[in-house]
Amino acid sequence: MPPHFCTIRSGCIGAAGGACPRVPVAITICRMSEKGKRMNLKQIGILSLAAAVAAAPAAASAFDYSYAEGGYIYRDAYDQSGSGVRLAGSLAVLDNLAAFGELSTNDHLDQFGVGALFHSPLQRNLDFFGGASIEHADNGHDSDTGIGLRAGLRWVALPKLELAPEVRYVSALDGATSLRLNAVYDIAPHVMVQGAVQVGDDQRFELGLRYDFGGRR
User: Fold this and answer.
1) What is the pTM of this model?
2) Does residue 73 belong to any structural domain of this protein?
3) What is the mean pLDDT of the chain?
4) Largest CB tally within 10 Å, which of 2, 26, 173, 203?
C-alpha cells in the first residue's frame, strides 16, 4: 500500500431528506498507511524544529557602543617612546555598526584614526567585533597615512568588569601589529575606569575614564 491514498466522493449541502437543490460539493477522504503516518510525523518534527530555530530571538548584546574615554598613555612605537594623552570614542550608528575615532599624542609621536566597527553578540555577555580605519601617524621624522584593522571580543567577566582582548594592525610608517587587552570597571552609573596594556610593535599602557552614554544592559 502506498504511504497514503485519497478517494473523492460527491455530496451536497441541501435540505435534509431532499435531493440536492443547493450547492454540490466534493468530499475528499484520505487514508494513510502506518509508513505514511511515520513519514508525516518526521516531517512535522523537522518543520517544527526549523520553525522554532527561526523564531528564536538572537542573543541580545549587553554592551553599548556609544561612549567617550580619555586619559594617560605611555607609548613605545615607531622608534619613539614617552608619556602623553589619549582620547577615543565610539558612536553606534546601526544595530551592528559603530563609528570610532582615536587620538594619542606625546612629545614625538602623534597618531589619529577614524573608522567603522561591525559587532555581533555571540551570547548574552560576549560580543565579537571587527573594524577598519584610516590611520595617520607622525613620529617627528616621518609622517604617513595607512589602513588600520582590528578584531576582538568584549566580555563581561564580572558584574562590573569588562575585558576586551583584541589584535590590531596599522600599515602606516613601518607597519605595526599588536595584541591588546582593554579593561573597564564600573564606578558609577555610566562612568568607568579604563585601562589597557598593548604589546608587540606598538607597546602601550593606558589609564583613564570612560563615559558610557547608554550604559551596560
Assistant:
1) 0.71
2) yes
3) 81
4) 173
Q: What are phi and psi of 57, to 5 degrees?
A: -70, 150
The Cα–Cα gap between 9 and 100 comes to 71
Residues near 16 by beta carbon (within 8 Å), at least 6 away in sequence: none
CA-wise closest residue to 119 among 160, 157, 148, 150: 150
Range in 69-73, 140-144, 152-156 with the lowest mean pLDDT: 140-144
Q: Is residue 13 part of a domain?
A: yes
Q: pLDDT of 12-27, one tens digit each? A: 444 444 444 444 444 4
The answer on pLDDT for 51 being more than 60 is no
| Domain limits for position 153 | 67-212
Determine contact, residues 89/117, Cβ cutoff 8 Å: no
Residue 123 lies in a domain: yes
Distance, in Å, from the CA atom of 15 to the CA atom of 18, rounded to the nearest integer, reads 6
Can you give the CATH number for the domain in which 148 is found?
A: 2.40.160.40
How much is the pLDDT for 45?
47
SS3 sequence of 75-134: EEECCEEEEEEEEEEEEEEECCEEEEEEEEEECCCEEEEEEEEEEEEEECCEEEEEEEEE
* Domain identity same for 132 and 200: yes
In three-state secondary structure terms, 189 is coil
The values of phi and psi at residue 48, to 5°, are: -65, -40
Residue 62 belongs to some domain of the structure: no
CB 182 within 8 A of CB 208: no
- Quote the CA–CA distance of 167 and 170 in Å, as a whole number: 11
